[in-house]
Structure formats: C-alpha cells, structure tokens
Q: What sequence folds into this?
C-alpha cells in the first residue's frame, strides 16, 4: 500500500536524511509489485515549499528511489506511491503543493466526475489525474471558505466526500512551514503518531525510523537533542509511545509541537468501499505489504 510519513520539529529546523525505498534486493526480486512513485516535500527557511518527486517504477530505475535525500526543514512530508488512479507521471506523484501547503494521501475515492463538478473552477488547481490531488483541491477551497482555517477546511472537504462519494480511505498528511495535520478515515487503513522527546524513548538516540516492509527510512542526528512529532502509515521503530489514530480522528501539531486531536468524522462513509469493490490496480495499491 502507499506509505505516508510526516515529521515536524518546529520551531527548530533540523537536518534529515530520507531513503524512500530502502530494500534494493527485495525490489529486484519483486519488481512488478514495486512502488510507482516516490516523493519528498520540505520548506526553505523563508517558508518556500520544495518537492522532489519521481514517477519511478523501481523495476525500471530504482536509483532515484534508493539514493539518500538530505534536506533541512521544520516539517517534512514523504510518500511512496502505489498507483490506484492516474499513470506513472510526475503530475500524479505525491506530495502535491497548493497555496504553500504540501499534501499526501493514501486511499481511494471514486465518483470523480461528481468531485470534478463540486470543484468547478477549482479543478484548475489539479495538474494530474489522481483522486488525491482532487481531494487536496477541495481541501484548499474549503480552507479559503473558512478564512484560512486548515482544520475546518480538511473537515469540510472530508465530510462532503464521506457523505457524497464512494470511499475506501481518506488518510492524509498536510504540512505547512511549521504545522502538520493528519487524518485517518475510516478504519480501512492505519495511521500512527509518535510524540518523540529529545533522544527518543531512551533519551540519547538520534532519530532512525525504518518501515517494516523496507519501503522508507528516515534518519536525523539533530533529533538526538530536540523533540519532534512523527506521523506514519506504520510504527517505524520500537518506541512504545506510537499511537494509532482512531477512525475519523484529525490530528494537528502546532508550531510549538503542541498536539491536539478531535473526532472530525464520527460517522461511517455513506458509500463505503471494500477491497473487493475496487478495480484490481486500486485494490493492489491498498493491500498491506
């Protein structure tokens, strides 16, 4: 399935190194089940968003995905994509940027003609063909409609989709220069959060997260002495303080690392999808590795 990872050390800028595919031998052996894109987003000191991404099928060229990417930021957003909607193109690869915000999504939304109609002129924000970028465009519009309130924008967009369109999952991470939001909805895919104290659980270690499936690794020596908050599709180390978000839970990490959470979507989707309902490629993108 697609992998999401978000990290914030705000207000401190930290160096971090990302390997978005960290198992080259496994990739060669399982070439045609490999990810369909990798991407990393961060922010310059002046708040300018940066995205480095590639629509890479690992069996074609795993160099981009397996090489280390070293960046410095207060917030980071990484994504490993298994295509469900849209082909192997840069425009379909996460993260996406709109209005100075970065966004990545794991899930499937159907009924895209209806979503396009809902977006109207805001469909012009969408450069690719994915359900994810359309979802982001709706979030962006709702943020503007709520006077710049990102929490209200995510809630409004997700609630409309949940009651109007067939949904498998709306799991997302959205970042700004110094804030992070994460939503898990409904209960079809997991999303976890870790409030990491300086040095982690043992009090003296740098950050070194690695997904169990060997799809993503994150390392930061700076976080041996600074707190951080991480959000990921899976628990990425042995720290016992990882917590699974509840279905419908919307998490917000403020610029001072204060974490708040609310049940933004208490009801099940009006038109829930199961794996059996999805097209084969979409189902494959959502199955756990």
A:
């Amino acid at each position: 399935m697609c992998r999401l990872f978000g990290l914030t050390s705000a207000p401190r800028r930290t160096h971090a190194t990302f390997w978005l595919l960290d198992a080259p031998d496994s990739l060669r052996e399982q070439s045609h089940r490999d990810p369909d894109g990798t991407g990393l987003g961060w922010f310059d000191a002046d708040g300018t968003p940066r995205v480095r991404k590639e629509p890479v099928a690992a069996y074609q060229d795993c160099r981009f995905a397996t090489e280390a990417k070293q960046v410095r930021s207060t917030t980071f957003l990484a994504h490993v994509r298994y295509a469900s909607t849209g082909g192997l193109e840069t425009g379909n690869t996460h993260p996406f940027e709109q209005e100075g915000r970065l966004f990545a999504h794991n899930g499937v939304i159907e009924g895209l003609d209806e979503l396009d109609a809902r977006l109207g002129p805001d469909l012009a924000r969408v450069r690719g063909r994915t359900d994810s970028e359309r979802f982001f465009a709706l979030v962006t519009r709702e943020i503007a409609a709520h006077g710049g309130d990102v929490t209200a924008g995510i809630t409004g967009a997700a609630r409309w989709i949940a009651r109007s369109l067939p949904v498998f999952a709306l799991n997302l991470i959205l970042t700004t220069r110094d804030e992070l939001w994460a939503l898990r909805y409904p209960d079809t895919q997991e999303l976890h959060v870790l409030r990491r104290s300086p040095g982690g659980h043992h009090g003296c270690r740098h950050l070194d997260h690695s997904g169990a499936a060997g799809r993503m690794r994150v390392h930061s020596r700076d976080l041996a002495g600074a707190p951080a908050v991480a959000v990921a599709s899976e628990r990425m180390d042995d720290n016992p303080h990882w917590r699974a978000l509840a279905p419908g839970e919307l998490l917000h990490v403020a610029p001072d690392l204060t974490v708040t959470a609310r049940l933004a979507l208490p009801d099940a989707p009006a038109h829930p999808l199961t794996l059996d309902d999805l097209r084969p490629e979409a189902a494959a993108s959502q199955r756990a590795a």
